[in-house]
What does this fold into?
Amino acid sequence: MKRSILLCYTLLSLTGLSAQSVWNPGQHAVIQSSRSDGRFSSSYAIAHQLIKNTRPALAFRPDFTPKEFRRWQDNVAKAMKELMCFPDYRPEKAPVCVSREPREGYTLEKWEFYPLPEAVCTFLVLRPNQADTPRPAVLCIPGSGMSKEGLAGEPGETEKLNDDYRSERVSMAKNFALKGYVAVAVDNPAAGESSDLEKYTHGRSYDYDVVSRMLLEVGWSYLGYTSYLDMQVLDWMKQDKGIRADRILVSGFSLGTEPLMVLGVLDKSIYGFVYNDFLCQTQERACVMTRPSANGYRPFPNSIRHLIPNFWKYFNFPDLVACLAPRPLILTEGGLDRDLDLVRAAYRLSGHPDAVEVHHYAKFADPQSRQNLSALPEGLDRDTYYRLVNVDGANHYYKNEFVFPWLKKIGF
It folds into this structure.
């Protein structure tokens, strides 16, 4: 062993390197300046510092007065409208039902809509049998790698695009329909029926990033485009004779929670929300996930489909969820109590503290099992980040066991 160490130092000496220059990822986990003036030469470090120094102008403050809170909600909506860049376009034709098939307990409809010139998109409607009067309805938005067909408990457009559609943990829309609600299921862009070549090649490993990049090049974003499409479907739901326009719930799983927040901030007529993901500060996530891998790459906080230019200048996810108050809301996969308490504070301020219900992953249901941090340390890798924000990724699924008792409780 001593001879090996001696040989190592000899080689370092022969190559002109010092022992301090040997690559050690742990030594670079936290971004630090080596200069006495505290400046950085690394462009990554400079960009990292820019993010750290950004203070969202519309962050929620628990010390708002009720009047300030309402004014803040209006300002959040104005900023969101600006960021989402919805086009000023009126579809040339109304949505059209292209098929209708019976299922046990409900009828499955497929609809087309035409949100942009030369564009056709689709959604599914699951109407419970004996629906003689308008019923409450749920707009169901899937997670990454999922499709509207999976939400409806149906096989994909091709076998390669099949979700685990027989699982109740996937078939969100079917679950709602069997409980008597009208369920409307959409695709996320670049997934399911709206994907490109995946049905021939790599299946549900959808290429969201190329579409996201192209949208960014024309001044839009993946979330802006997604929310624009979902808003078209939401507007149709309000006009459908079988749906109660005053009883529309938006239910988002994982990636689907992002358009849920946008719709909720922009459309005050939405009755309530199912937020099926953990809640986090995305800006903080980018700041603290800095530990490099063995090959010298820093973690990528999230893919380009989550990028909305200027978003962090205004707010973070907990601010947007707080903006949904006082409408009924359930969060099913926890997060840091710090962020969840911010949402609870907003609901207290709105005068409806009982309108929000929070659940954690079973692994973290006991408060003693959770991390209770006011701030996350820098220098984290992805796995450590998830552990510190109380995420049990292996059990990330749609939490029917929480959602349906909650719906009964709120009388939906």
